[in-house]
Amino acid sequence: MTQTEFLNIVLPFKDKVFRLAKRLLVSTEEAEDATQEVLIKLWNNQSKFEEYKNVEAFSMTMTKNYCLDKLKSKQAQNLKIVHSNYQDHNISLQKEIETKDSLDWVGRIIQDLPEQQKMVIQLRDIEQYELDEISEMLGMNNTAVRVALSRARKTIREKLTNTHSYGIK
Amino acid sequence: MVLNNIEKLLEKYENGETSLREEQQLKNYFSQETVAPHLEMYKPMFAYFSVNQKEQFTKALPLKTKRVFNYKWIAVAAVTVLMIGFYFKSNYQQQDDLGTYDDPQMAYNEVVKSLAMISTQFNKGTSTVNYLNEMNKGTATVGYLNEIENTRNIIFKPINR
Questions:
Q1: How far apart are CA B126 and CA A155, in angstroms?
Q2: In this structure, are residues A155 and A163 in contact, taking their beta carbons and an 8 Å threshold?
Q3: Per-residue pLDDT tens for B122-140?
């Protein structure tokens, strides 16, 4: 397999891998490293490519495992200082800031969810996979995925309602 | 009517029972400028999903083409080395032939000369070995130490018993 052929296979889902990694690892840099790692592993194992039923699902599973390992490992316990909170001090665009702020809220709420619910929300609501695909990727059964999804959505809605009506009620 | 529909969808959505198409409907509804005030809090949620869908991986991928090492070439190299070895070996002729004498008188003279040389060297060797006799004398003297031992035994035996 040539590099171009490989890239053509990988191209449709490499962003999805990156976004899942970022959802779990938070830092963009770490997510980039993780994505690179996963894709290079795929490249090095290209001889087994035909054995994989679904390369995309396989890579998502690989990403999940890699990121969870990363989170468990000692390396992740070191605090990294990453400047991701540069602010745009443009007060005149108050509306824009308001929406951006509420978007950040959603991000923060998702960040507080347990790892499994985070992944389910990411794969379903952002990447729009079918439930069956998600259960294959995460190695859970269909019902468990549905339950996790439902719990995650409810938690997000409740917390958003609280934030939304903060100071009113 | 539409709102009623959306509310129903939202309930299904929270139970995780919506299909992808129904979720897309919800997303479309909440991407509008105005939504029903009591559903306002859903807006950032769906907006967040849409925004996050667009994030991309931009880092370059350092793909190394893996060289498959071919062991066939090792065999080829080994055979080549062996062939070169044999080639040079056949060029090199061993010289066991030291030559010989045709005249018996001359051969006799040579043998006598060689034997004479061997005997002189041999005598030198034996004269050196002669010194070993001195050594024997020494050991004989040391034999007297046994006498001391005997005497000591006579003195100490009664005490030891």
A1: 110
A2: no
A3: 888 888 777 777 888 888 8
